[in-house]
Amino acid sequence: MPAPQYTRRVAKHPSPVCSGRHGSCRFFEVTIMSNAKMIAVFGATGAQGGGLARAILDDPDGGFAVRAVTRHVDSDKAQALTEMGAQVVAADLDDEASVRRALDGAYGAYFVTFFWEHFSPAKEKDEARNMAAAAKAAGLRHAIWSTLEDTRLWVPLEDARMPTLMEHYKVPHFDAKGDSNRIFTELGVPTTFLLTSFYWDNLIHFGMGPRREADGRLVFTLPMDDKKLPGIAADDIGRCAYGIFKQGEKYIGQTVGIAGEHLTGEQMAAALADAFGEAVDYRAIPPEVYRGLGFPGAEDLGNMFQFKCDFEADFCGARDPAVARALNPALKSFRKWLEINKDRIPRGGEPSPDQ
Q1: Signal sequence: where (predicted)?
Q2: CATH class held by domain 5-200+231-259+313-331
Q3: Is the predicted pLDDT of residue 12 greater than 50, yes or no?
Q4: Would you tell me which of 51, 59, 168, 189 could form a disulfide with 184, CB atoms 3.0–4.6 Å apart?
């Protein structure tokens, strides 16, 4: 028997300062299942959270509803989610009280941080602590925490194989997330720990795509030697998270690793060549060379790639594409992702349409 439904008016910009008594708000009708489980999606206008929000909204009979949590409720992306049927609310991860309000009445939440906005592992851990404390106070029945390995469990600070960064970390944007897992556990938050993979979207937005050399050749550079790199379409991370929520309590207390494929640099270059219709050479560089490239985060990323190389079996083994495909049957391969996104990837001096 299908779930009962009702129709309600939703403000175009629902936020703490916009409600029905303000003439500036415009309304439209959205049909929502009256018994739908509300998922508060943090980072809903970003890569991971956006994928989850769209997955829920694309499945109106799935039994879930979206509360998109963002600092910027008036952004174009937030407005687009509103028009798709999401409830959009404001919260700041630095403010535990605002996070707690955003969780009011929710069944579950998707928690993610964005290290590259501030480059501070201490801030990232504070944000995770605020989310975990708010989740406990709100009585959430299921939280998904987007996390990564604490690489210091493999490479202690005194290990000279890779430099220690910021005095306390080997791969700061990994270690802070991995170290924060225990906060959710210690507070007794019913949590699934989601291990993500390299976004193929980094080729578009992070400057990691092929570069055109002076002789006209396209060269794809990674410090991965001949090792395999687990990768995934960013949108598929959220869709896998939706698959976890749909399984109820099955994955609570578990670590789930996801990837679309495990590919070498040579395999990625070959797929890029086929997509572009011209040769793309793979150039493997040592991690110490990558660390010295000088852009913000180069040392962190250089250590990250070295970790993925040195511990390929562990890193790939924790991310089974078959698990991801079971959670998200529409999981994209790298070639399928390229088919959709090839024209958005900058090639050397050619600007991305998104920039």
Answers
A1: none
A2: alpha beta
A3: no
A4: 189
